[in-house]
Amino acid sequence: MPAILVLDDSATMVMSLSRVLKNAGYEVETAGNGKEGMTKLAAGLKPSLILTDLNMPQMDGIAFIKEARKNASTRFTPIIVLTTESGGQKRDEARVAGASAWLTKPTEPNELLSTLKQLLPK
Amino acid sequence: MQFTTEASDNLVCVLLAAQVAELRDRIDGGATVELLWRTSDVLSQLSGLVLALAKRCNDSELNEQCDAAVAAEAEISRSLESLAFEQAQRNDFTCQTVDCVVTALERLADTDGPTANRLSPDDLAALYVSEEQRKVHDAATRRFAMVAASGPNGTENPRRQGPGE
Predict the structure, then answer these.
(1) Interchain contact A16–B (C-beta under 8 A)
(2) DSSP letters along A55-100, please?
(3) Residue A102 has pLDDT above 80, yes or no
(4) With contacts defined as CB-CB under 8 Å, which chain A residues touch B28?
(5) Structure ipTM
(6) Distance between CA atoms of B139 and B128, rounded to whole angstroms?
(7) Where exactly are the structural domains of chain B?
(8) What is the pLDDT of residues A7-31, one digit of tens each?
(9) pLDDT surpassing 60 at residue B156
(10) Which fold has domain A3-119?
(11) Over 50: is that where the pLDDT of B165 sits?
(12) Contact list, B96 vs chain A (CB under 8 Å)
């Protein structure tokens, strides 16, 4: 069962995403910001995919993606950005940092799951 | 309590920031989202019970009705989960917009440093987290410019005229 690491500073969003992913059969690990996410990766967590918000305290999504790409175990792990931002500049920054896909909130569970399936290793 | 005009202005910003932050916490509490999840969970439990009871019953007509009810429950649960997911994201968007207002008010109330009590439209725009906020900003700026260009009776504002005119 693939494990997904979810990063979002909103507790409701974390619970909501976890619920959608668990109902679809995925294992879920969560973090409230990029720093917490990096701590979990450093502790040995090897997610099959990472789903991250952009605007978070302590370490935002783009800084997290840059750090995750330096980490040997997540260098090639698919990373989806799920954010309220739809601006081209932020999207470009995320792409350059190493994001694999971008979804703008509000998105539907089916769209999220379909993007996940496309990116998860077969 | 008596305050100077400046201190009173700062206090108003602090108070507004606190009030809006309180509102944010209520939104993030997500009572609607939790109610939708609970409803979905209870429906799933009831559906399981209907299936279990149907297995003990030899009435084929009742079994068909149970199967139909379970199928309908699955469809409704999917819709509830989808609605909860969308609502959680809308709450998140609202909270981030509110955060922007709180941060702006806190900066206006901040009396320390060279930029004390100052916040330009560009400073405010730097806090935005969505295109929707930027569109609202642009529309409000245009409206403001139109009003500023007109005098009290719709005539051009004399302050916009060049020096010596």
Answers:
(1) yes
(2) --SSS-HHHHHHHHHHSGGGTT--EEEEES---HHHHHHHHHHT--
(3) yes
(4) 10-12
(5) 0.86
(6) 15
(7) 5-118, 130-165
(8) 999 888 999 999 999 999 999 999 9
(9) no
(10) Rossmann fold (3.40.50)
(11) no
(12) 55, 84
